[in-house]
Amino acid sequence: MMRILILGGSHLIGRHIAETLHREGNSVTVFNRGISPDGLPPAIERLRGDRDEGIRGLAALEGRSWDACVDVSGYTAVQVRSSAEKLRPLAARYIYISAVKAYGNPVSHPVYETHQLMQAANEDVTELDDDTYGALKVRCENIVRETYPDSFTILRPQVATGPYDISGRYSYWLARAKTGTRMLAPGDGSDHLQVIDARDIARFVSALLENSGSGIFNLAGPRFTWAEFMRLIGAKDIVWVPAELIKREGLTFPELPLYRPENEPHGPLGSPGLMDVNSDLAQKAGLSLTAPKDTVSAMREWMAGREFPLMLSAEKETRLIRLVNL
Prior knowledge:
Helix content: 25-40%
Radius of gyration: 20 Å
Order of helices and strands: EHEEEHEHEEHEEEHEEHEHHHH
Strand content: 15-25%
Mean pLDDT: 95
Structural class: alpha/beta
Low-confidence stretches: none
Number of strands: 13
């Protein structure tokens, strides 16, 4: 049995990590603000605090010790600097959940752990948005490496999905396909997408803790085409809308989640390189990947009875389909 502290733990990746470690018999403590209901088993200990307040917000950690800390909710230097320095004498290891966005918009791919990262954001940057997210992750990685030079692990996951995914990025497509009505499919079917099941991340964290694994790892699931994805989710009546038309109409990544056209390395939908991330290193270290059909099945089961907002409005979707048929 290990004593594990999770910074976060209420949402997708953190919740799966907490549940997995608890199920395997470890003593799990989650530290967060306690604002969101976490749905975790009662036996998991909750500590409350706010890392935005720096060291002052970490008072609940005083007088405790853990075998490892898993940081799922560190987004700014203020948060990670305070927690890493506070925990240095309290936790033997520090596992930081970064993101593939740390690579920025890579032109060459597949993306390996050796790819150049974005320039790190300054430590005083606290505004989190699409422009600062990756650079802040790089700064946070650097802080962890400096503070835990001999006992850090950096994980850079691809877009994560699975049960508890409330982002709507993956569920949009499943919910839209379920209606059975004519729907937009982006591109011509040959572009690729790639996600990772959050349950795979959780199992890998457990394996790293058990084997004292360290280093830097990309975490990415199987890569497949949009044509394969449409078949996987059971979309029947689809209209392929060319990437050129999508670009001309000014659609963004939030409106067409997961879609990154491969012929638009610098377009508004983001770099296609981030849909071609290599995770061989992690797989050699124990990462096992869930088959895409099983992720779809688990998501459908979790989504049952829940409402999910449409990312792309019905009006825009109808307009784009109509333009294709002109």
